[in-house]
Amino acid sequence: MKKGAFVFTIIALFFWGCTKPTNNIKVVVDANVIKYSAMINVTDVANSSVVPAGLTINVSGQDADAIYEISGKKDFEFAGGIISLGPSPTRVPTESSPVKFTVTISAPGYTAITQDIQINANEIQQVVSVSLAKTSTKSTGSVTITSTPPNTQTSETSAVTLNFTGTCSNKSDFEFKPSNYIFYKEHNSAEAYQYIGYMNKGAITVQLQFGKTYDFKFAYGGQTYVVTQEINQADYTETVDLGDTLCDTF
Amino acid sequence: MKKTFLVLLCAVAAISSVKAQDMSKLQSPVLHQESFQVTAGTQGIGGEFIYELSQKVAIRSGLSFIPLSMNNAFPISGLNSDNKLTANFSNIHFLADFTPFKGASFLRLVGGAAYFMQAKGDFAVQPTGNYNYGDIALTPAETGNLSLNANWSGVAPYLGLGFAHLFPRHFFNVNLDLGSYYLPAPQTSVVGTGLLDGNSSQNAQFRKNMSGYRFLPVAQLNFNFKL
After folding, report:
1. How many domains does chain B have?
2. Quick one: which of B157, B164, B193, B154 has its CA closest to B50?
3. B162: containing domain
4. Which of residues 188-247 of A touch B (CB under 8 A)?
């Protein structure tokens, strides 16, 4: 009787309301599960626009078992020379117990580099820039680590906020808000992508020139996603198709 | 014989006249009647006190409340989840009944207003089963839950029709109300936790969807006791 009265009430309300309450409502998933991370960006020491082919990475060390790629995968695959690694949510770095692991980066024809990485409690993001040298040359590779985002502000730039939303064709009621490292370059430029900052839950504010067109790139789950946008206003919403393979992991 | 008949005829006429006067006294209206009715219908259950101002007008005040819940009212495509819809409506109302047609005293126009102390609907979604982020198994707390809320508290006017007599001829009757409140525009919120904490962005769409839900129809049976 109780249920019948309720159903009657709801039907009565629907008759007057007409629109289903959940019409066009998306389930927004915050893909910021791995909150601490280190982004590794690998280039050729002789030419920063070149990404060595066949890159592989091996993770070892104290907390290796807790380390995942930023999409939550245990398979470590570079995408355009970029991979972001971090500890699972259960391994939170503390002041007395930072997360420690070692990465060995290799590519055919290049001298491998081994680098220790430490994630401290007060370092949510860090950028590990690795330059590999060909074994046929006398050059040596290098590694630089920084935890502060680059300053790209000039007299010609303005603050622009970009909001990225990931979509899945096989989950049309879902939207995903990625948290990831963003690279950019001018559209059709031969220059290498430059790191511009970290988008948190899909949002990032960067310094860009109005009137120019840029490519924005991020690597996620072994894949590269690129969005092109001409900048003429202070904020944009960018939609990225994450692809069925990645969407099925949720 | 003729005289007897005439006397009888006059007696019958006189008796009829007296009877007619007695009957007219018996049929004179009783004013300022009072009654109490227990109400049950789409605005819940409650009670009303009714006072007759005149033959055509009566006023009533009362309370109603309805706490209801329903599981899995709206499944969400692609999300294995349990959901629960709860509604809590309680009001204090003041109404006036007007009987426009003397020959149709069973029909009344009813108007007034209510103050809804509580008028809210909550839709809570809890993902079920195992959710993974890549190769990471998520706990229920990490997965999170979702809550959509709409609140119509405030003053709402009422208009409707009443059927059957408002005051019982003897001790008890049953009458019917059919009408509607026009609720205030709902205040809405969408709140998520864990992986779902970005869902506040859906509040604008939710408010738009709920903007048409302004009418609360009243279909109510009243069990009326004369005081």
Report:
1. 2
2. B164
3. 32-226
4. 201-202, 221
CB atoms B195 and A5 under 8 Å: no
The pLDDT tens digits for A30-53 are: 888 999 999 999 999 999 889 999
Which parts of chain A sit beneath pLDDT 70? 1-18, 245-246, 249-250
Residues of A in Cβ contact (< 8 Å) with B148: 21-22, 25
Task: Decide if A166 is inside a domain.
Answer: yes
Indicate if A49 and A138 belong to the same structural domain: yes
3 state SS of B130: coil
The ipTM, to two decimals, is 0.84
Structure tokens given for B196: 């779902």
Alpha-carbon distances, residue A11 vs A17, A232, B177, B207 (angstroms) = 9, 48, 18, 19
Global model pTM greater than 0.90: no
Query: Residue A33: which of B133, B148, B219 has the nearest Cβ?
Result: B133
CA distance A175 to A167: 5
**How many angstroms from the chain centroid is the CA of residue A108?**
26
The residue with tokens 């009430």 is A9
**Closest CA relative to residue B194, chosen from A167, A29, A93:** A29
Q: Which residue of A has its CA nearest to B70?
A: A3
